[in-house]
Amino acid sequence: MITLEQVRLLDQKVSQAVDLISTLRAENRVLNEKLESYQQKIGELEVLLSGLKEDQVEVEQNFQKALNALDMLESSADTAAPDEQETTPEAISSEQPQDPAEESPVENDSESEVEDPAVNDLMEDEQPEDNGAELDIF
After folding, report:
1. Phi, psi of 38, rounded to the nearest 5 degrees
2. What is the average pLDDT value for the chain, to the nearest integer?
3. Which helix (H) or strand (E) element contains residue 51?
């Protein structure tokens, strides 16, 4: 037979189980609320991330356009420079009429007697240039 003592022990264990179940349900409810909050934040962050990715793509496209514009500007400057400063002998001879008197070298100049152009360049480099500027060290 079941004694009164056994019934009280059973009642005590059932009460503890009911209390534990109530506590676990409350904890479960709190955790579900946190989960919903986190899921909402994740959704907001995904929208924000999507917007940032779109902005990133737009920024990269604008950088690429700017780089292409600079490349085009640089290439047009490179191609325009030789056209503006054409110094080929044919271009010079076609632009200026040739005078036979100008073509003959002057015989009296001592520097013009040297036939080697490298020597002429060295002789020109050795001559000091006086452009009226003084060097101030202090």
Report:
1. -65, -40
2. 77
3. helix 4-84
pTM exceeds 0.85, yes or no: no
| 97 within 8 A of 106, measured Cβ to Cβ | no
Q: Give the C-alpha separation, 4 to 1, whole Å.
A: 10
pLDDT average, residue stretch 91-111: 50
Structure tokens at 123: 């002789």
Cβ-contact 111, 120 below 8 angstroms? yes
Q: How far is CA 41 from CA 31, 44, 46, 93, in A?
A: 15, 5, 8, 79
pLDDT band at 8; cut points 50, 70, 90: very high
Tell me, what DSSP letter sits at residue 85?
T
- The continuous run of DSSP H or E covering 81 comes out as helix 4-84
User: Average of pLDDT values for 21-50?
Assistant: 97
